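Exercise 7. Given the components listed, write out the predicted structure of the assembled complex. Treat all entries as one system.
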Amino acid sequence: MRLPLLALLARGPAHGYELKQDLEQLLGSAYPQPNVGQVYVTLGRLEKQGLIEGEDVEQSSRPNKKVYHLTDSGREALRAWFEEPEDEPRVRDEFFMKLALAPQTGLAEQIALINKQRRQYLNTMRHLSKLAAAEDRDNRIAQLLIEGAMLHLQADLDWLERCQEELEELE
Amino acid sequence: MSDRPTPVLRAEGLVKTHYGEGAPAHAVRGVDLCVRQGEFVAVTGPSGAGKSTLLHLLGGLQRPDAGSIWLDGDCTDAYGEARWAVERRKRIGIVFQFFNLVSNLSVADNVELPALLAGVPPKQARAEREALLAELGLAGKERSMPGELSGGEQQRVALARALVNHPPLLLADEPAGSLDSKGTREVMRLLSRFHQRGQSIVLVTHDARLASSADRVISFFDGRIADDAELDGMPTRGTGISGVLELRD
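Answer.
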């Protein structure tokens, strides 16, 4: 969550709770709600690293709140973030290992493993399509997040299908 | 007799082999299937697995080499071509990948035709058509010809045509197969909406996203049912959706 918080602060100073709300609004209901404690902890860490600076602002009848702003090195870190492409998503290593090793153990069948894994993916896919239907249709960022997750799962399911085709022929 | 409601569709021991050039293709190799009233079942699998053949058997578009099909408890073994044609107007609606609209009829006529053929009075056919087209967001397109519409719009017309006689069962063969991702979402949304109102649906698709709008997904491989899973959309274990969506710290 470090860099998303930095990115939100690039717009201007804000306090922790504001940042949590901004993130929620941007990413929509499908996104696991960031925990406010986690936001404060991350902000504390970013401040220690000199990427942001906090300033206490007095509030009448309430405890002071801390308003953070981005430092120059924070802005630099953000530039570097945008500069670098991200790693590729990984093949599900653990499932692949199960599939590869099952026949030697005599403890599990490959086709049964594939079926079980497919049920899991399909269930998550169904959950995602329900979320997509429930999410505000005009929140493009939120819709794209869900669509991205669905396309990843689709690819995983296509791959399971390939595994099944190949391995059933051997049976 | 049990007091369970009669399934809208039941099939037992279905077999279909295509004999063409080269080796015979065993498209469907012994399939038992039961679809309950109001159920939404998706059949997925790789292309060539025989899932479209299965759907054609269920809709009487092809006849099985062995096995039987019951519609609402009625055995169809003795049905000829003409009887199946009647069933496809009254008890079964079908949508196809390439829409199969009559290209020289207007949108309105495409939708009304099956109603008129089923003996529905013209006035009522027109009312049904108007209601469906409005529901499907096609009001104002009545006079268009199918060729003037986008793929997504043509599929919605095909859906209206399939549903105009309120068939208990809707069969859909890759209904989003020739649509872009927006059109796919649209079809997904509409199928879900009709399902929520109680429409029984059997959907054949290779698209897992589309399949996930169903309550039950049958995985079809090499002419056989490899798995038959009820989906509740609530992953029971593992990180499920949050693992798919979550930002890393």
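Discussion: The mean pLDDT of chain B is 90. The interface with chain A takes residues 45-46, 181, 185, 188-189, 192, 207-209, 211-213, 217, 219, 221-222, 226-227, 229, 231-238, 240-242, 244-247, 249 of chain B (CB under 8 Å).
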